[in-house]
Description:
183 residues; single chain; Aminopeptidase; alpha+beta; 5-stranded mixed β-sheet
Amino acid sequence: MTQAQVRPAAAGDGRGCAEVWIDTGHYYSTLDPRIFQIPSSDGLADAFERDLADAVPGQLYLVAEVDGAVVGFLVAVLQEPAPHPERQLLRDLSHRRLFVQILAVAGPHRRAGVGTALMTGAEEWARDHDAAMVSLDTYLHSPTSVPFYENRMGYTRRAIVFRKELEPGPPPAPSAGAEAVVT
Length: 183
C-alpha cells in the first residue's frame, strides 16, 4: 500500500489536483464516453486554485501526497438539517451530514490506500463537525469505486439516480388554453 499523507488542501495544490482530475477523466471516459469526458487542461489548475482560495466554512478540501506530489484529492460540503425536520420524509434531512462531491485518485495510486486515507480523513472531519453521516454518489458501472465504497469503506446503497438522454425534436405544442405568441 502507498503511504499517502493526507492534509488540508492549500495554495499551490491546484496543479496537482488538475493533473489528478485529468487522469480521472481518462479513466471514466474509457468506461462510458457518452457520460464522461477528459477535462480541458486550459486554466484548470488556476480554477482549482480559485476554488481553494474561495472555500467557505463547511467546505472540505483534502489532498493526498506521496513523495511530495499530489496523487489524490477530496472535496466535500457540510449540509445542515432541513428546516422543520419533523416534516421531512427522509430522516437524513434531520441531521447535519457531509456530502462528498469528489474523490479522485491518480491511476498509479488507485487501489493502494490513497482513497481510503482521503475518505477516512473526511469521516474524521465530519465527526469533528458533528455530522451524523456521510453520503456520496458514484458511477454504478465503475469496477473500482462501487466495491471500494461497499466493501472497503462500509457504505451502503440507498438510492438510484436515473438518467435519460433526450433526442432533439420540435418544441412542445402549447397546452390547451395557452395562447400562441407569434412574433
